[in-house]
Amino acid sequence: MGSRQISFVIAENPPKRLDKALSRDVPEEAALSRTRLARLITDGSVAVNGVASTDAKARVAAGDQVEITVEEADESHIGPEDIPLEVVFEDDDLIVVNKPAGMVVHPAPGSPSGTLVNALLHHCGDNLSGVGGVKRPGIVHRIDKETSGLLVVAKSDAAHQGLAAQFEKHTVERAYRAVCYGVPASTDPRLRGVRGASFEPGNILKLTTQLARHKTDRQRQAVLFEGGRHAVTRVRVVESFGAPAALALVECWLETGRTHQIRVHMAHAGHGLVGDPTYGGKRKLSPKALSAAAIAAVSGFDRQALHAAVLGFDHPVTGEALRFEAPLPQDMQDLLATLA
Predict the structure, then answer these.
(1) Rounded distance, CA 301 to CA 274, Å?
(2) Which residues lie below 8 Å from residue 116, measured CB to CB, with a gap of 6+?
(3) Where in the chain is the domain with CATH 3.30.2350.10?
(4) Is the distance from CB of 83 to CB of 105 less than 8 angstroms?
(5) What is residue 146's three-state secondary structure?
(6) Quick one: pLDDT at residue 76?
(7) Pairing assessment for the beta strands 148-154 and 306-314 based on DSSP bridges
(8) Which of 215, 253, 275, 276 is the most exposed place for a label (fewest CB within 10 A)?
(9) CATH 3.10.290.10-classified regions of the chain
(10) How far is it, in rounded angstroms, from Cα 254 to Cα 174?
(11) In sequence order, what are the residues at sequence separation of 6 or more whose Cβ sits closer than 8 angstroms to the Cβ of residue 123?
C-alpha cells in the first residue's frame, strides 16, 4: 500500500497539546479531520522533529518540524452492488442522489445489503478518495428507509468535513413535502393548546421540542421538554383536500435534523403522516369529505407520505452555493391526483 508525506512547521503561539496544534496548523489541502489526526498520532504516523510521537497531549513549540505519513485509503469491508441510482449532481468531492423509498442508507444488521452505500461503492468505484482512511462514501445525513428524496454524500475527506460542519451549524436548507391528516391552521384552537406549537406570520406552524428515544420502544422517538435533543420543524400548508378538509399536502422545513423528526413532530401536533406505520396511525376518513377512491388510496398507501424535496448547501471545497429540487415520486403524485 502506498502513502503520502505531509510536512509543515508549527506556527507561532501553538496550543499546548500536539493534537490541537496539528488541527490548527496542518495544511488545509491535506483534508485531515481532528478525528483522523488523533488516529494518526495513536498509530505512530506523526513525527515531530524526526521523532515519532504517539502522545496526543505532548508539548510542541513554534518552529517544530512535523511530518505525517498518511497511508492510502483501505478498501471498505462493505461490498459494492450494481443498484440503479438517480444521480442529481456529482463531482470529484460529492454526489447528490434522489433516493427511492424502500432503500436503506447504510448497511445494518437488519439490512446488510441493497443499501445506498452498497450502490455508491459500485457507482463511484475508484473515484472515492477515501473518508477517514477508508474508501467509502461519507454519510453526513440520512433519511428513513421509506422516505424518498435528496441526499448528499461526501466522496473525500475534505468534503466530508465541510458538509458535516454545515449540518452541525444547521445552515443546510432542507425542505420536505408530506401528506398529513387534517390541516394545520392557526385558526384551529386545538393546536393553540399543543405544547411546543406556535404560529409564525404566513400561517407557518412552528414545532419546538426535545426529542429522544422512546423509553420502552427503542425504534421510536418521543417528544420531551426536558432532556433529549433540541428539535425545530416548520410547516406550511400547500393544499388541502376534502370538504370539509380532511388531508393536506404540507411543506416542512428542518432547522435541526433529528431521527424521525418530521414524523414525530407532525404526530405530536395531531397531524400524523398518511401511511406512517410508526407515528401516523390509520384514521377513519368521512365519506362525506372524500370520495371512496380517495379513501381507498389513503388506506392503501403503504409508506409514510414523506419526500425530501429540496436540499441546499455550500460546496465544501469550492464554496459555490448549490441547491437541488426533486419532484414528488410517482406514488405520492398518484395519491394527490386521487385526492384532487
Answers:
(1) 7
(2) 85, 97, 99, 103, 104, 105, 106, 151, 153
(3) 75-169, 174-339
(4) no
(5) coil
(6) 53
(7) parallel
(8) 215
(9) 3-72
(10) 6
(11) 85, 87, 95
- In words, the CATH class of domain 75-169 is alpha beta
Residues in the chain: 340
The C-alpha cell of 67 is what? 511530518
228-287 residue pLDDT tens: 889 999 999 999 999 999 999 999 999 988 889 999 999 999 999 999 999 977 788 999
Alpha helices in 193-322 (DSSP H): 261-268, 292-300
Amino acid making up residue 50: G
Contact assessment for residue 246 and residue 239, using Cβ atoms and an 8 Å cutoff: no
Q: List b or e across 150-161, with b for residues whose CB sees 16 or more CB atoms inside 10 angstroms.
A: bbbbbbbbbbbb
The residue type found at 150 is L
What is the Cα–Cα distance from 156 to 30, expressed in whole angstroms? 11
Cell for 186?
392557526
* CATH code, residues 3-72: 3.10.290.10
Is 144 a catalytic site residue?
Answer: yes
Tell me: the pLDDT tens digits for 162-202? 998 899 899 999 999 999 999 999 999 999 899 999 999 99
Choosing from 144, 157, 188, 276, the catalytic residue is 144
Q: Are 99 and 309 in contact (CB under 8 A)?
A: no
User: Domain 174-339, what architecture?
Assistant: 2-Layer Sandwich (3.30)
pLDDT at 275: 94
